[in-house]
């Protein structure tokens, strides 16, 4: 068994799609638009076959996203090397994204950084 994809609602669909394409090398499919509900989405595919669906619709809400909350807290992206973790973290920081930890080696042995990116959501960048 494997996870087929992970999905997230966003207010700014094009900005979210652009983030995952620019910084993490994702490739989006054509926009899906349900004209009845005004639901829109992109599936963003990554080199190893993983997919992320970014979605929007008019009635979504955007509640405060504290760091310690129930539910999914981050999505981790493996970038292949410590050097790439360092360089991507520096690039994101220079572009104004909030780095909340790292790059560092965690107690359980991961070399990672955590960044708040799309609308208060976190990603983890790891080897």
Task: Outline the structure in words.
- With 127 residues, the chain is an alpha+beta fold.
- The chain has 2 domains: 6-56, 2,3-Dihydroxybiphenyl 1,2-Dioxygenase, domain 1, CATH 3.10.180.10; 74-126, Roll (2,3-Dihydroxybiphenyl 1,2-Dioxygenase, domain 1).
- 20% of the residues lie in helices and 36% in strands.
- It has 2 helices and 9 strands.
- It has helices at 13-24, 82-94; strands at residues 6-9, 27-28, 32-34, 39-45, 51-56, 74-78, 98-105, 111-116, 122-126.
- The strands form 2 sheets. Strands 1, 2, 3, 4 and 5 form a 5-stranded mixed sheet that branches. A 4-stranded mixed sheet has the order 6-9-8-7.
- The longest helix has 13 residues, at 82-94.
CATH class identity of the largest domain: Alpha Beta
The CATH superfamily of the largest domain turns out to be: 2,3-Dihydroxybiphenyl 1,2-Dioxygenase, domain 1
Beta-strand content estimate: 35-45%
Our measurement of the CA-to-CA distance between the termini, rounded to an integer number of angstroms, reads: 23 Å
**With helices defined by DSSP (H or I, 4 residues minimum), what is the helix count?**
2
Shape descriptor reads globular
Q: Given the helix and strand composition, which structural class is it?
A: alpha+beta
CATH topology label of the largest domain: 2,3-Dihydroxybiphenyl 1,2-Dioxygenase, domain 1
Query: How many runs of DSSP E, i.e. beta strands?
Result: 9
Q: Biggest sheet, open or closed, and with what strands and sense?
A: 5 strands, mixed
Please give the domain count.
2
């Amino acid at each position: 068994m494997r996870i087929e994809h992970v999905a997230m609602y966003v207010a700014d669909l094009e900005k979210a799609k652009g983030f995952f394409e620019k910084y993490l090398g994702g490739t989006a499919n054509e926009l899906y638009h349900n004209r009845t509900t005004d639901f829109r989405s992109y599936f963003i595919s990554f080199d190893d076959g993983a997919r992320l669906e970014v979605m929007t619709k008019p009635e979504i809400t955007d509640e405060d996203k504290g760091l310690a909350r129930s539910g999914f807290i981050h999505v981790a992206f493996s970038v292949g090397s410590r050097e790439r973790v360092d360089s991507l973290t520096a690039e994101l920081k220079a572009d104004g994204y909030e780095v909340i930890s790292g790059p560092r080696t965690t107690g359980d042995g991961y070399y990672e950084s955590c960044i708040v990116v799309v609308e208060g959501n976190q990603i983890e960048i790891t080897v």
